[in-house]
Specification:
The complex is a heterodimer.
Chain A: E1 2-7, E2 10-15, H1 22-29, E3 48-51, E4 54-57, E5 70-72, H2 86-93, H3 103-116, H4 122-128, H5 139-157
Chain B: E1 7-9, H1 14-23, E2 27-30, H2 36-41, E3 49-52, E4 62-65, E5 68-72, H3 77-81, H4 84-89, H5 91-96, H6 103-108, H7 111-117, H8 123-131, E6 134-139, E7 142-147, E8 152-154, E9 157-158, E10 165-172, E11 179-187, E12 194-204, E13 210-218, E14 225-226, H9 228-234, H10 241-252, H11 265-288
Parallel strand pairs in B: 1-3, 2-3
Antiparallel strand pairs in B: 4-5, 5-10, 6-7, 6-10, 8-9, 11-12, 12-13, 13-14
Helix pairs in contact in B: 9-10, 10-11
The chains are: A alpha+beta, B alpha+beta.
């Protein structure tokens, strides 16, 4: 079956079997391998993408169901090639990733959270990422990274704090 | 972890859906897919054809009809979670959503899908049973309303006949002024499948006596159970702790309870009783706090 999808703002087409998940279509047909294959039955959250801005598991829907949605993958999060979003940057700075396998799902989930709730409590953050499993168990740093990103986004939106989406340079 | 090959059809109407379902016994309905796709991936379900009803507009929505709130089958769990009508009229349903999967699965998962899936430990089926909801199914011959008490037949087995489509669920709204609800669950991790969960809804009169009561437990066995004998025994009492303990223990005495690697039958029996009492106690307190 032919499917026409909108991925990261671009119109993409693929010829897929109906049983092909959106995840496999993104990875195999569009070479967007930032969406990770984990459990393939909706438990781990590694395959999280944004559907019309809302986190969803791309392993739990078929590519043939995904037309008409604006699909955002981790490749569509950075403001420009070679740059990082505020949230990605905060993950680097706070060591919010170890092996990195869960990271795309975590970043996308955090992106939706901070858009809807710019000042989340620790509990809000924990609840938001409760469906994303980190097998390195580095949850502490992930929560701290999202909290730092929230703080920076708040400052970026404040008057006289520089351009939006332009976090301060950080030390590595 | 790849499903067997199947055909995919997206019909344009309920009639067309019913006709497709009537043609072929191996056709399955898909909507949010949050329960069905894992079953497909593990090849526990091997349909030849999937009929996608998610975009049929007439199957989605929440409305008030007489003394009921009617929820369309493909209404997203996340939409119901945020719905002011459900918050006002069906507080017990509103209460359980944080335990239904995760935020990301609630955005795709549907109310009808959870009920049709009939997982014995799932929260939405338990609320439908506790409140005595009616589940409406449609086939090529017409529409039938099935009582929740006659709907859940076994693990992942419901009374939806082959060829029928679940279209909506009618939840009765209690008319009393002082209504309170309670819900408790034990699981391995927040939002995982419940080992045991319990719901309660009670109504109190001005003197604090119970005029209506419903209590249910999920995760004990093949399907969720409603403790009707306990509810009958508690009506007319002031819902004191001793009366609740006695009523719940008596009602649970002859239940067939399963055990597995996660929780033994004894554990589920004890925990089910404790959670049911706590849910009743919370419901009593919430009702007592309501204005007379």
């Amino acid at each position: 079956m032919k499917v026409d999808l909108s991925v990261n703002g671009e119109a993409r087409s693929a010829d897929v079997e109906p049983r092909k998940t959106l995840l496999d279509c993104l990875r195999d047909d569009f070479n967007l391998t930032g969406s990770h294959t984990g459990c393939e039955h909706g438990v781990c959250g590694a395959c999280t993408v944004l559907l019309d801005g809302e986190p969803a598991r791309s392993c739990l829907m078929f590519a043939v169901q995904a037309d008409g949605y604006e699909i955002t993958t981790i490749e569509g999060i950075a403001p420009a090639p070679g740059e990082l979003s505020v949230i990605q940057d905060a993950f680097c700075e706070m060591h919010g990733l170890q092996c990195g396998y869960c990271t795309p799902g975590m970043v996308l989930t955090a992106t939706a959270l901070l858009r809807d709730n710019p000042q989340p409590t620790r509990n809000d953050i924990v609840e938001a990422i409760s469906g994303n499993i980190c097998r390195c168990t580095g949850y502490g740093q992930i929560v701290e990274a999202i909290a730092l990103a929230a703080q920076r986004l708040a400052l970026a939106n404040a008057p006289k704090a520089g351009k939006p989406n332009a976090p301060k340079a950080h030390k590595r | 972890m790849k499903p067997v090959p199947f055909d995919y059809i997206r019909p344009n109407s309920i009639e067309e859906t019913c006709a497709l379902l009537a043609q072929d016994g191996d056709t399955r309905v898909i909507a949010g897919g949050q329960s069905l796709v894992p079953m497909l991936a593990m090849r526990l379900a091997r349909p030849t054809r999937l009929v996608d009803i998610l975009r049929l507009p007439e199957l989605s929505g929440i409305r008030e009809s007489g003394n009921s709130i009617v929820i369309g089958a493909t209404t997203r769990q996340a939409a119901a979670e945020r719905d002011p009508l459900i918050a006002a009229k069906l507080p017990l349903l509103a209460k359980i959503f944080p335990w239904v999967g995760h935020p990301a699965t609630r955005r795709r998962g549907t109310i009808g899908g959870s009920i049709a899936h009939a997982d014995p430990s799932a929260e939405i089926p338990l609320v439908a049973l506790t409140l005595g909801a009616e589940i409406v199914v449609r086939d090529t011959h017409g529409e039938t309303a099935i009582k929740a008490s006659e709907f859940f037949l076994g693990p992942m087995v419901s009374a939806i006949a082959q060829g029928a489509l679940l279209t909506e669920i009618r939840f009765p709204v209690w008319p009393q002024k002082r209504v309170g609800t309670g819900f408790h669950e034990v699981n391995a991790r927040h939002s995982d499948f419940a080992f045991v969960c319990a719901t309660a809804q009670v109504a109190l009169d001005d003197a604090g006596r119970c005029t209506a009561c419903a209590v249910g437990i999920g995760g004990l066995g093949e399907f969720p159970v409603r403790l009707d004998h306990a509810a009958e025994a508690l009506i007319g009492t002031d819902l004191n702790d001793a009366a609740m303990t006695e009523a719940v223990d008596a009602a649970m005495a002859d239940l067939d309870i399963w055990g597995d690697l996660h929780a033994s039958a004894d554990y589920r029996r004890r925990t089910g009783g404790v959670l049911a009492r706590r849910a009743l106690s919370d419901a009593r307190q919430a009702a007592a706090a309501r204005p007379q």
